[in-house]
Amino acid sequence: MIYLDEARVRSLLRWDALIAAMENALAAYSNGRVVQPVRSVLTVEEHRRYLGVMPAVSDDVMGAKLVSFYPANEGTPHPTHNGVILLFDTRTGEPMAAMDGRFITEMRTAAVSAAVTKRLMPEGSRALALLGSGVQAHSHLDALAHAGSFTDVRVWSRTPEHAERFARERGARAMDAEAAVRGADVVVVATSSREPVLRGAWLTSGAHVNAVGANRPDWRELDDDAMGNTLVVDSRAGAAQESGDVILSGAAIYAEAGELFSGAVAAPPRSTTTVFKSLGLAIEDLAAAKLVLDAHNASN
User: Fold this and answer.
1) What 3-state class would DSSP assign to 275?
2) CA gap 209, 27 in Å, rounded
3) CATH number of the domain that 79 lies in?
4) Among residues 90, 132, 178, 252, which is most buried (max CB within 10 A)?
């Protein structure tokens, strides 16, 4: 069995292939071709330290991710998310590879958002608002370049200095949250907030929102008005147990992303205001890890 570190994973993973792989993995999940429980999360210290266990099996990939989620690491040199992914041979059950999961988590989260955004964003989208200026803001800006052409990028952070730094590094404009969102075609909410930072009243009719934070049942990123729009999730079962935005708002779910990708549910009209609530699924991690392993083997 081999181990691939983050540097090796980073050298092998590419956006276009990853976005396509996420579409296929989520379609398989929604079509019932993936065996996967809702992730098990152990609370080490409430609001500060968690350990997640995420196994899955599909036709061509089997394995699990162990991921630590440490909000306590905010403002330190240590990432808030760390992980390891283990892949097994589906035919023999033998372990094939282990690899660093932090970078895979970073990329696959944004790749899923990009795949959904391609189907739901308004025609001619140009303005992108990023609420949050951390790892996922950077990753989403990279991934969404493969979904559309965003010429007006706005960024907000609870720490204005962080937003200003992001703006300098990425050619964006730093501003307050409401100003960033008003008039934006696509909004990404990627924060560690436990209270809503996006108000539905700010959204332009027809805008699309990707919400990737607030992954605990009592945490929120979006208010009830925002959640009252057409809602897509990665997993109904996961949203019912893990998403405070869904649970506390009582929002009705229009579709899983995989149902849109497979054609089982038609995408709403582009003029519809939409929200994608992403929690992250084990099959996304394993499909991404398989891409990495296949690319590694092909290069040797």
Assistant:
1) strand
2) 21
3) 3.30.1780.10
4) 132
Q: What is the DSSP letter of 272?
A: S
11-44 per-position pLDDT tens digit: 999 999 999 999 999 999 999 999 999 999 999 9
Clarify whether residues 128 and 194 are in a common domain. Answer: yes
Domains contained in the chain, number: 2
Question: CATH no. for residue 220?
Answer: 3.40.50.720
In this structure, are residues 56 and 36 in contact, taking their beta carbons and an 8 Å threshold?
A: yes
Sign of the four-CA dihedral 158, 159, 160, 166: negative
Give the CA angle between residues 271, 275, 279 to the nearest 5°.
155
Q: pTM (2 decimals)?
A: 0.94
279 CA to centre of own chain: 7
Chain position carrying tokens 């008039």:
183
Per-residue pLDDT tens over the stretch 172-207: 999 999 999 999 999 999 998 899 999 999 999 999
Q: Is 205 helix (H, G, I), strand (E, B) or coil?
A: coil
Within a domain: residue 116?
no
In a domain, 110, yes or no: no
